[in-house]
Amino acid sequence: MTRPNILVICSDQHHPLMSGYRGHPYVETPNLDALAASGTAFTNAYCNSPVCVPSRMSFMTGKYASDVDSWFLYIPLDRAETTWAHRLESAGVPATMLGKLDLCGDYQDAGFGEHKIIERRPAWSPYPRRTPLLDRLDGYVRPDKRAHIMNSGVRAGLITDGSDGHNDKYGFYDHDRIVTDWAVDYLRDKGRGDRDQPWALYVGLLFPHWPYCVPQEYFDRYYPDNIELPFDASFPNESLHPALRHFQRGQGIDGLTEEDVRRTVAAYYGMITALDDRIGQIIDELKVQGLYDDTYVIYTSDHGESLGEHGLFYKQCSYEGSVGVPLIVRGPGLAMGEACEEPVSLVDLYPTVLDMAGLETESDRRGHSLLPLARGGEQVREFVFSEFHGNFFKDSWYMIRKGDYKYTHYCNERPSLYDLAADPQEMNDLAADPRYQEIVAELEALLRTQVDPEATALRAKHDLGLIGPDGEDYTRTLTVTDVHEGRRTGRFEPEPELK
């Protein structure tokens, strides 16, 4: 074979440290461990926006989420944007998508020649929004977030069609079972086909995304004692940065008990092990069909999961558990059993996939191919970047990781700075320390070479209905109650439909 095949497996909401190959004392991931032993594990990998849709639009296009105006969920991608699937198809490499990719609205294929999904996310209509997005206003509390934690544990013991995965009784176990079966069937077909025709397959699995429920056998591996309780897990946590305390209040999780956390952590661990079993099925089929040696494999997740760390659950913030992701790359000619500590991000997937196919990357893409690092080469990037413009935060934030330092710029709030080498749990914010002011200034200047944070935040607010016709910033002046009253009186239009 002159050109290898490409297999990309993307899970959803996988904490970067919660795998056996990362040294976790309890989480069992033998298949990911074997994949890491056969390739390179990137131990400082980040998503470019820690929520599903913007992260995926970034790694599909090789651009930052703000480059393509992907601020939050329910926002469609412009069909004019080129994805790596478009590039592969144009070069004669058939590309197939199975499972979750999370485009919104009518445009679902993302340039893949074939695609099959179970759950299609709709888009707001009309969009841009003409009524304020409540999720970013004072007084917003999302009730289902607390409910997921209170209902965590064992999944109902029945088989579903996978389409009701957000239900706390079922979760995404059946979704992943079905998508894995699709992937296995695809690989069997390729095993019978033309071995000289390279192909690309994207598999979108949903574990360990909430709801936190898993079959009994997986839950029992960890509950009640085979877990690590999260650090700094106070509910409420009054020591949080003001923007993060606002986030915690929006989750509605004040007053959680140790038992609530213990049960949820055990279920999450079980979800990771169930995910690992699915990945094992796919890799095993590659080997059975004699395709493994001729296939590049990438495993990653769209973002992480805080899982109680700092008193937070879910994603959305710039702490390591949320913005960090697992990332493994293996394939022909790449190093085996290596751990690369250089900071990288998911925007690097676009040039990496093109490099695997022998294609050049356009000059307007933000990332760099990971293959030189996976061959033992030197780092070519100076820093990594992430951003967030969605729910639970009144204002946008932007993160720069350079060397050991992580800087987060919060619009209309003070910044934060952590030395991750000395303080990997991010307990000691250095931003106000006079000894670190030069580093803060350097990293803010670096951030501004990538994006105008205030102008970009304003664009996001305009699109999300948060700027009034006279320029009023509703995140500064309105509460959720005000908007409800404004809808009643006709000041604001009804909530846009989802289509």
TrEMBL record:
Stored CDD domains: sulfatase_like (cd16037)
Lineage of producing organism: Bacteria, Bacillati, Actinomycetota, Actinomycetes, Micrococcales
Domain (Sulfatase N-terminal) ranges: 4-358
InterPro entries hit by this protein: Alkaline_phosphatase_core_sf, GAG-degrading_sulfatase, Sulfatase_N
Domain of life assignment: Bacteria
Listed name of the protein: Sulfatase-like hydrolase/transferase
Matching PANTHER family: ARYLSULFATASE K (PTHR46615)
Signal peptide bounds: none
Source organism of the structure: Georgenia deserti
